[in-house]
Write a structure and sequence with these properties.
172 residues, mainly alpha, AhpD-like, 9 helices
Length: 172
């Protein structure tokens, strides 16, 4: 049950804008820009980063929906558990692993970020725009995780696939 009496039991992110309607337009533009504008990362990779960030933040609501979108775009089912356990052994492209290590540290220990973290990403062949995209995705989902958890949104596994279809903008 959400923490806010005005929210329905099955409240989703969209319901939060009933409390703060002025945030809807700007938030929508921001989300579209981060998740669907031009990027070196495919939609599947962006959703992988989003779901990974949400899993690290223990946000089942966001993880459930965005891991489902990632699967809709070709990410294999078991990838997320592998990433949480050991990025180096996870079945993802080796070139993506430095990005995921960066995202993990940024999510769990942001105060420990140092130049060497960015340098490891650059050494793997990524440029500044790619790293910036990963940071924006991770930051967006850290914010979303706090909105979801702070409002007490319910993570209903039965609804993840339907929510994923509704959230996925259909762009590729």
């Amino acid at each position: 049950m959400p923490f806010f009496p005005s929210l329905p039991e099955d409240a989703g992110i969209g319901h939060l804008f009933n409390i703060k309607p002025g945030h809807r337009e700007g938030f929508g533009k921001f989300s579209d820009a981060v998740m669907r504008d031009d990027s070196v990362f495919s939609i599947a990779e962006r959703e992988l980063i989003a779901a990974f960030t949400s899993a690290l933040n223990s946000c089942d609501y966001c993880y459930g929906g965005h891991s489902a979108i990632a699967r809709q775009h070709g990410v294999e089912e078991g990838v997320f558990d592998s990433l949480i356990d050991d990025i180096d052994m996870a079945p993802v492209d080796d070139k993506l692993k430095p990005i995921l290590r960066f995202v993990r540290k940024l999510t769990l220990e942001p105060y420990k970020m140092v130049q060497a973290d960015a340098d490891a990403v650059f050494a793997a062949g990524w440029d500044e725009e790619a790293l910036a995209d990963a940071i924006w995705i991770s930051a967006r989902f850290s914010m979303m995780n706090r909105l979801s958890l702070g409002h007490g949104l319910n993570a209903d596994p039965a609804a993840f696939e339907a929510r994923a279809k509704a959230m996925d903008y259909g762009k590729s």
